[in-house]
Structure formats: C-alpha cells, structure tokens
Specification:
The structure is a homodimer. Chain A is α+β, with helices and mostly antiparallel strands. Chain A has five helices and three strands; from the N terminus they run ααβααββα.
C-alpha cells in the first residue's frame, strides 16, 4: 500500500462518497453511477483511482464486475494517524505512562 | 477545513515527514529544510500546502517565523475515519457532507 495513493484517492468528495456507498455493500459501476450526476467514464476514472489506492477491489460475480471496499487499507491509514498522534507510545520514542 | 485539501496535503512523503518533525516542537522553515535534501523553495512550497490544509500554522516569534502543528485538523480527519468505519453509528443521521 502506498499512503500517497491512499491520501490522494481520499482527497476528492466524489471518491469519498463512493466509498460510503460501498459501505452498504458491493455495487457495479453502473449502480454507483446512478448516485451521481456524472458520466460513467468519470465514475470509472474515480473507481480506478480508488483501485490504484487499494481502497476498493473489483470482483467478478457472474457477468458483472462488482466493486467492494477494502477495509484493510482504512485500518492502515488509521494506524498511521494513531501512530502519528502518539497513541502508540512505547512503540515509538517514549511518552506518557500508558 | 476542507478534507480535500487535508488529504491532498497528506499525500506526500515529505509533507508527512515535516508533520512528524513538528511533533517535536515548532521549527523555522530553515530548520525544517536542514532535514531534507531539498531546496528551501521546495520546502516552502510543501509548507504552503500544509498551511492551506490548515495542518500547520505559522507563528512569528521575535524575528523568526515558526511553523507549528495544528492537531485539531488531525482530530477532524480521525473523526472522519471513525465515522466512516461505523464506530459512531447513531451520531450522524444523514448527509450534510461538506
């Protein structure tokens, strides 16, 4: 996982909205597109950025390709913040008691 | 705060390193630049991106301008993840997403 790609992918409202939609379950690109006043190619572009960041995966089910959330990557980003904010004292240079 | 700007600012190794440096205390642009094999103008550019995202603030102390971390914004980003990952179900109902 590249944190650069992940943060870049998250720096867009539409992409964050797509991720929220996928929280509700896997969706095809067409189903995702229905939620936005946007062309399908635009949605495909956003989905590709999310895929490159590994935030979503595409899975073939029958004839359709479904997009699903990869929550592992979210965990890793949250870990970065957790670490950054010093929650994980002891692992890094020493901090408060804990 | 614009989450777009925050995530964009975080999508760069150098900028994330600068934020880590500032964890140790406020620094001038010159002091920050010493830690990188980069020109001062490049560092200034990164500092500006961080400032635009409100992740750092500049504070005049005597003759120098010091950069300091704005941890409030980190909290807000962590809140976004917290919310996204469903830790806070019930706190927010519907979509005034900004």
């Amino acid at each position: 996982m590249s944190l650069n790609n992940v943060f870049k992918a998250l720096s867009d409202n539409t992409r964050r909205e797509i991720l929220k939609l996928l929280q509700g379950g896997d969706l095809t690109a067409g189903e995702i597109a229905e939620h936005f006043a946007m062309t399908k190619p635009s949605i495909s572009h956003h989905l590709n950025v999310l895929k490159q960041a590994n935030l979503v995966q595409d899975v073939r089910k029958g004839q359709n390709i479904y997009y699903s959330l990869n929550t592992t990557v979210f965990q890793e980003v949250v870990c970065w913040f957790y670490d950054f904010l010093g929650c994980s004292d002891g692992r890094k240079n020493d901090g408060d008691e804990g």
